[in-house]
Amino acid sequence: MTSTYYSRQDQPRPEPQSFGQRFPNNPSSFATEGESQEGAFPHAKKEDYSQQYTNTEFSPIERSLRINFTRKVFCITAAQLFIAGILVNFFLNHSWFAKVNYYFSGFATFAGLVAFITSVALGFSETLSRTVPINYILLGIFTVAESYTVGFIAGQYNRDVVLTALYLTAGVVAALAIYTVKTKTEISYYSGLIVLGTFGTAALSFLNWFTIFGLFDSLIFVGTAVMSGLYFIYDVKLLMGQDRFKLSLDDYIKGAMHLYIDIVRIFLNILQIVGKKVQENEQEEEEQRRRQRQRQAEAEAQARQTRQRRFF
């Protein structure tokens, strides 16, 4: 009986395997020869890891970055609204400040011009909007100038009207934000509505120039308010980045500026609608008081004539 001994050098060496072959991620690699994936693992799900994340979905890291980006933009916008509230409060509670700016209305015109120039610079220049600290400085200048303009406009109305418009704006913005987060409608749908609404409102404004009594004023007010809401939804969708169109993570200054402009636009539209309604009510009350005084005067004149007839 003979026995065969193999030395370590004579034994056949196994072929080198890669990490993916030794520890496979796909359950089908565990199946034996001639056995399918379903036969080896009947409960395993067949996945295609190459297409796990599409253009409209995020990986966990990208989702975390996008959430932090959205929070940063909303925090910057909150700071802008705080500055706007301070300036509006000055116009409403300090009569001397409102009178000075009323007699020197050129300050408001200059502030509007500064706000327009800085918004164009931040909106069309990626270098200015992404370079720190230039982007924060320009955004601060834009915020102060725009807030001054908003305060000048709000100073033309009664305090109660401004507070009513402020509360309504907060409710509308909160409702639109919740709707934007919950809805699954694609952003291209809102872009189409924005284009149609813009042309429709522009057409009504053009026709209103040729009417004497302003027949389209109410429609224009409602149209501009609806358009402001659509712009807000569109910009929030860009921040969320769940559709084909999205803002870059470096455009936090641009996103905050867009949100601030949308909220200011909503506030001014609501302020105009509420102010016009209050003005109409005041005119009706004044007309009723005038008629009542007229009827009292007629009654007194008639009573005077009656007494004179009785005397003679």
H/E element sequence: HHHHHHHHHHH
- The helix content, as a percent range, equals over 70%
Rg over alpha carbons: 34 Å
Summed up, the helix count is 11
Poorly predicted runs are 1-8, 23-55
The fraction of residues in strands falls at under 5%
Short description:
This protein has 312 residues and is mostly helical. Helices cover 72% and strands 0% of the residues.
Give a topology summary.
Blueprint: H1 19-22, H2 37-40, H3 60-93, H4 95-103, H5 106-124, H6 126-130, H7 134-154, H8 159-182, H9 187-208, H10 217-240, H11 252-311
Helix pairs in contact: 3-7, 3-11, 5-7, 7-11, 8-10, 8-11, 9-10, 10-11
Notable characteristics:
mainly alpha; 72% helix; 312 residues; 11 helices
What does this structure look like?
This protein has helices at residues 19-22, 37-40, 60-93, 95-103, 106-124, 126-130, 134-154, 159-182, 187-208, 217-240, 252-311. The protein is an all-alpha fold and 312 residues long. The protein has a domain at 60-274. The chain is elongated, with a radius of gyration of 34 Å.
